[in-house]
Structure formats: structure tokens, C-alpha cells
Amino acid sequence: MDPLSITTACVGLVTTISKLSITVNGFVREVRDARGDLDAVSRELFPLKTVLELLSDDAEKSTGGGFPQSLIKQISGILKNCHGVLEQIESSLRKHSGGGVKKGVKWSLSGRDDMNKLRSSLEAYKSALDIALDMVALYVCLDFSCILANSSSQINGPRDQSRYRGTATRYGCDQERHSSNTC
């Protein structure tokens, strides 16, 4: 998997989260007893969506060889597992919808516990993606430092310098802080 595949996977998950949010809201209208449990799931979905959008942007804008293969492999696994959890949430909501008056009872007996486990998994994957996003930012900072150190003589005037500094600022890097690193 390359950075473009990460971008594609992230965009797909963002779309899935948007659809799932609509499904969650509809389910809460049908099964009022599920509101508290599904509010907790919704509180995990929005920050996950934000992390995925940032990761997608970073992967799309990666330069040169992209990210290290080990990081790509880890991110890919997390994205795959996250997709599985989102599918399980949707499946659980379908399983517990319908059935008239029994919906609340059905949810209380099995849906609540299932959803809490899935929410916990979703939270873990969101945290792992948060860490991966920090690793991407660190990698970009180190890569940026190496670009500056190795090609400072090739930068053509202030315009090119400002372009590189703009990239560095986005990731919280600055040339002075990283100029002592060796590449």
C-alpha cells in the first residue's frame, strides 16, 4: 500500500462514517433506549472522521518516496480494522432495528453490550490513528529538515524558501530547531 492507497482508504472511511452517522440518528429516533449508548458512539465518530481527513491530506501531499513502509503497513492495518468495526456497528443497528415494541427490549438485552464493545474498539483505533498522524508529522518534519540540509544551495531565492517554510510551519517544524540533525 502506498500513500495514495492510504488516502483512498481514509476517504472511503470518511464516507462510511457520514452514512453511519445518519443511520445512528435514525436508529435513536426508533429506539429511544439506545440514545445514551449511541451518543457515545457518535462522540467517537466525529473525531475519527477528523483524524482520517488529516491523514488523507498528509498522505496525498507526501513527497518523494512517501512514508516509510513500516508506517504505511501499520496505518493500513489500522484502517482495515477500523473499517471492520464500522461495518459491525452498522450490522448491529440493522439487527436491532424493526420489531415494533420489542425494539427497546431487544436493544437492552443484547444491543447495548455489543455496541459498547464496538465503541471501545473504535476508540482504540481512533487513538492508534492519532498516534500514526503524529508519526506522519514527525516523519515530514525530519524529511523537511533533510531536504533543507541537503539542498539549501539549490533553493532558488526567497520564494522557494518561503514555500519550504510554509510546509514546515504546517507540521510545527522550524529550520533552526532541526538544523543540527544529520540526514
Describe the structure.
With 183 residues, the protein is an all-alpha fold. The chain has one domain (3-137): Single alpha-helices involved in coiled-coils or other helix-helix interfaces, CATH 1.20.5. It has helices at residues 3-30, 35-60, 69-96, 102-151, 157-170, 175-178. Helix 1 runs antiparallel to helix 2. The protein starts with a helix and ends in a 5-residue tail after the last helix. The model is unreliable at 158-165 and 174-183 (pLDDT under 50).
Give the SSE map.
Elements: H1 3-30, H2 35-60, H3 69-96, H4 102-151, H5 157-170, H6 175-178
Helix pairs in contact: 1-2, 1-3, 2-4, 3-4
Question: What are its keywords?
Answer:
183 residues; mainly alpha; Single alpha-helices involved in coiled-coils or other helix-helix interfaces; 6 helices; elongated
Oligomer: single chain
CATH topology: Single alpha-helices involved in coiled-coils or other helix-helix interfaces
CATH class: Mainly Alpha
What's the domain count?
A: 1
Report the sheet-strand fraction: under 5%
Output mean pLDDT.
80
Biggest sheet character: none
Roughly how many Å apart are the termini?
25 Å
C-alpha geometry: elongated
In CATH terms, what is the architecture? Up-down Bundle
What is the string of helix and strand elements? HHHHHH
Q: In terms of structural class, how would the helical and strand content be classed?
A: mainly alpha
Computed CA radius of gyration, to the nearest angstrom: 21 Å
Uncertain runs with pLDDT below 50, 5 residues or more? 158-165, 174-183
What is the number of E strands? 0
User: Approximately how much helix is present in the residues?
Assistant: over 70%
Number of helical segments with 4 or more residues: 6
